[in-house]
Amino acid sequence: MSTIKEVKARRVWDSRGWPTVEVDVVLESGRFGRGMAPAGASRGTHEAVDLRDGGTALAGKDVQKALNAIETEIAPVLKGMNVVDQAAIDGRMKEMDGTANLARLGGNAVIATSMAVLNAAAADVELPLWRHLAGDAPVRLPLPQIQIFGGGAHASRRIDIQDLMVIAIGATSFRQATEMTAEVYLSAGRIMAERGLLQGVADEGGYWPAFDNNEQALDTLVKAIEGAGYVPGEDVAIALDIASSEFGKNGRYRLALESRDYDSDGMCELLLKWLDRYPIVSIEDPLAEDDEAGLIAFTNAAGAKVQIVGDDYLVTDGQRVRRASEIGACNCVLVKPNQAGTITDTRAALDAARQAGFGAIVSARSGETEDFIIVHLSTGWDAGQLKVGSFARSERMAKWNEAIRIEESDLPFAGRGALVRS
C-alpha cells in the first residue's frame, strides 16, 4: 500500500507571482503528499537550478519544460516504487537528470517531487511529518530568525544588506519568540512611518526602507528593539544576511548605497566594527562565495564570538560543508531544500554540519509558497534554527503558525542555545 500509484504535476504561483511547480504523489492506498518548489533571488553558483522556459511569455519564467520532465520522465520511473525509500527515489531522479546541478530535469521539478514523496510517506503512516522524521529521537522547536528590514536583491538593492533580522534570544518558547518579534516589527513600522522612511514591504515581508546608509538601518533596528520594550543583546539580538556575493567579486566589494569600495580585508574590518557596535549574534555570507580566503579570515577573527553562516558559499552541500570545516571557513550552514535539489541531499548537508560541529538553520527562499515543509524539517531533524523571512505576508506566516501548532505537542524550545558561540 506504500507503492506510488501516480505522480501529478501542475503549474502554480509563488509569492512573487512567478510560475512554480507543484507535485502530488498519490499512493495505492489513496493517501498522497504534495510538494511546492520555492525560488531564490540571490543564488549561489553551485546550487541546483530551476528549469524555466525562457522566451517572452511570463518574463521567461514559465515552467512548462519542468512539468513535462515530471510527466514524461520522472512519473513513469517513480510509479511502482516504495514511497518509504526516499534515498532510492531521489537517487533515481538524479541519475535520470545526469547533470551536477539538475539542469536537465530542473531543480524545481526534482525538489517538488522529492518533497511530495516525503509528505506522502508521512501520510501513509498517518503521522505529522515532523514526527515521522523524528521517530523516537528527542527534538525541539527551532529558534526563529525573523526579518524586519529587507534589502539587497529582496528590495531592489535599496540597501546593500539583504536581511536585517531579529532573534528573540530571551524567549523561552516559540510562541513567546513570535510575540516578541511582532512587537519589534510593529515598533519598526512606527519608527519608519514617523521618519518618512517607509516605502512598502520587500519580497519576504520585511519593511522596504529608504535609509541613507547601512549603519542607519542597523541603528534603526536597535531603536525598534528598544521601542518594543526590550533590551538589545539581552532580550532580542540582531542577525544579518549580508549576501556579499551580490555586490562582491574577485575580492572587491562595492557598497552602492554609500558609494564605498572595499577589498576583502576592508570588508572584514567593516563587519568587525559592526559586531563591536551592534548586538549581532549571527552573520550570513559576510564575504562573497568566491572569497574563500576572506571567509577564513573573518571566521578566524569572529567565529569565537558569533555564528557565521554559509549560504551561497555552502549551498546546502555536504561535501562543501566538510571542506569548510577543514579549512576554517564559517561555523554554521544555511539549509535550503531547493538549493540541494532533493530531500536526501538536504539531510546529508545537515548531517555533515553536525559531524563538523557546525550549527544549522533551515531556511525558506525569497520566492515562497504556502508550503510549510521546512518547519517540519527543522523540527523533525532537530536543526535548532529556522529562517522564514519576515512577520508579514501569508507565505511567511503560514510557516510561523505551523510551528505554533507543532509546539502544542509539548516539544521543548531550542532557544538561544541553538546559536553557535551563544
UniProtKB/TrEMBL annotation:
- Pathway info: Carbohydrate degradation; glycolysis; pyruvate from D-glyceraldehyde 3-phosphate: step 4/5
Per its UniProt record, the required cofactor names are: Mg(2+)
Gene3D superfamilies attached to this UniProt entry: Enolase-like C-terminal domain, Enolase-like, N-terminal domain
What GO cellular component term, any one, is given? phosphopyruvate hydratase complex
Give the principal location in a single coarse category. cytoplasm
Single GO biological process annotation from the record: glycolytic process
UniProt keywords (A-Z) are: Cytoplasm, Glycolysis, Lyase, Magnesium, Metal-binding, Secreted
Q: Which residues form the Enolase N-terminal domain?
A: 4-133
Reading the lineage from the top rank, the first entry is Bacteria
Its catalytic activity? (2R)-2-phosphoglycerate = phosphoenolpyruvate + H2O
Residues where Mg(2+) binds: 241, 284, 311
The chain positions of domain Enolase C-terminal TIM barrel read 138-421
Homology family: Belongs to the enolase family.
This chain's function reads:
Catalyzes the reversible conversion of 2-phosphoglycerate (2-PG) into phosphoenolpyruvate (PEP). It is essential for the degradation of carbohydrates via glycolysis.
Q: What is this protein called?
A: Enolase
The gene from which this protein is expressed is: eno
